[in-house]
Structure formats: C-alpha cells, structure tokens
Write a sequence for this structure.
C-alpha cells in the first residue's frame, strides 16, 4: 500500500514510470482516493516531461557561426 510519504520519497520513480508492477498497482489504488498526491504528480509531470524531452538538433552551420564569433572576441 502506498502512502503520501512513499510518493514524496519516490517521486522521480513515479514520474519516470519505473515502479514495478506491484508498486504501480498500489500507487494507482492510492491515487484513486488521494487528491493531494494526484495534484502533486499532475504538477510535476509536465516539468519532468520538459526536462527529459529530446534535445533539439542545432544545425552545424549555427555552431560554426557561434565558434567564429567567439574566435573574433
């Protein structure tokens, strides 16, 4: 059974979806009744998704332009 303190202590695992099957089921059960934990996860999930999003590829020409500018300084 998950408690609020468990979610706070394992928030990264929760956000990453890295809980084992038993813990994931216990989490789902806890979230059915706990609006505080649902709100906590809902608050941090978009921030976590931004943090782990793929990096945007920067064109090589831009890197050369930056390097040239730095060399000029």
């Amino acid at each position: 059974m998950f408690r609020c303190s468990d979610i706070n202590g394992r928030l990264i695992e929760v956000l990453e979806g890295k809980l084992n099957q038993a813990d994931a089921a216990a989490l789902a059960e806890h979230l059915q009744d706990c609006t505080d934990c649902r709100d906590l996860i809902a608050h941090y999930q978009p921030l976590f998704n931004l943090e782990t999003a793929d990096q945007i590829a920067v064109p090589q020409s831009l890197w050369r332009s930056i390097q040239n500018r730095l060399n000029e300084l």
User: Anything to note?
Assistant: Residues 63 and 69 are 10 Å apart (CA to CA).
